[in-house]
Model the fold of this input.
Amino acid sequence: GAKEKIGNDRLRYALATTAFASLSVLAVYFLGVSLFGSRRTGLLSAAFWAAKPATLAYNTFAPDTVYWIFFILWMALTWKVVTAEKRPYGSMVLMGVVLTVLTMINFNWPLLGGMFGVFLSIHAWRNRWALSEWFWRAAIPTGIGLGLLVLICIDYNLDYFAIYRYAFENSQFYNLRGVYHWIMCLIGGQLDICILSGSFTAYIFLRNLPGQLRERPMPAHTLYLVVFLTLYMLAVIFIEPTLKIETSRIWAWITALPL
Done:
């Protein structure tokens, strides 16, 4: 449908989309540095991201490239807001703005909010935080994000819940009722197996996570990865109607890169 609307401006559209999508490389670098405090990890993560065939292919036309940037930023900000020794008010405000953008461009944001909440709750329990510390780290970004969403809906006279219900009921791409489809979602679709990104993702998890899970006490970044992977799996298996295999593949790939 996009091609028909673009008409003779396809080149300009492709260039603009590619230029914006290139920012996702910086976002992945930010994620790697945030998780492990290592510029080398960030640079290698960004290099793997830029070299992925699907990343290169989608950059010229797909709106997914916009979603990727804010999804990656959400992952990095989740880490920074939860693990900072003092309340990182700047990151909390930015996280709220990113949440608003995610609510407007993709309907998977409740899953991201759940990941943030679960990781924050477990981390707070492990570190014996006071309830007020846990509450404000959750309330400030959530309040900013949902507050901005309400203002946008009022200003543009949008019924967000009606839009959400319609999208949720009409976005079935695959029937994920069998074990085979669950596995394909978690490690990548059939095409990804052919171009190795799904296999690479699975290898990274199997190669790195078992050793990290044996460390005591469990490192914070290992807990972060376990929370994200567990909720990915639950979403793929239980959410109805089914999620796109493409989106599931994107989740797992991004999470694997810093590892």
The chain is about 80% helix and 0% strand. Residues 96 and 144 are 5 Å apart (CA to CA). The two ends are 37 Å apart (CA to CA). The chain has a mean pLDDT of 78.
